[in-house]
Amino acid sequence: MKKLLGVGALLCVGFSIVFCIGALAFAPFGRAQAQVAKTAEEGGKDKGAAILFFREHHFAGSALKPSIYVDEKEVNRLANGRWFVVKVEPGKHKLQSSAKNEPATVVDVAPGETAYVQMVITTGNWRGGGRLLTVDSKEAQEKVAKLKQLDEKEHE
User: Which listed residue, of 12, 44, 45, 120, carries a Cα 20 to 30 Å from 89's Cα?
Assistant: First the structure.
């Protein structure tokens, strides 16, 4: 009976250790996701609105940094595995990238709201470009939490 009790206690301790290690492994992801949500929320404060652009990390097209245009004005160039926020006035906005023959993406952003837009690299004969797609906020925050914020010095 004592031997059985000792094995049970040992198993209980073992499962506790595995659970704690697993929880610690996901802690940075949770903090990153919270930081992304906070930054996006700050972008849409003061009755303004914000658009968060992101690009997941992929090997294909990794050297490309396509330009992003909001209402036909260049706001930044989006590097591989990065994201950034642009403050905008509430209402409809026309979003484009430097990709040729790609239709503009139109987003309607309400006051205090943040729109999430993903750049997907498209390949071409001589050069690639970026297609802009609107994404659900929950899905986008999960993806953006794995990326790095674009530094101001990276904008060239």
Answer: 120
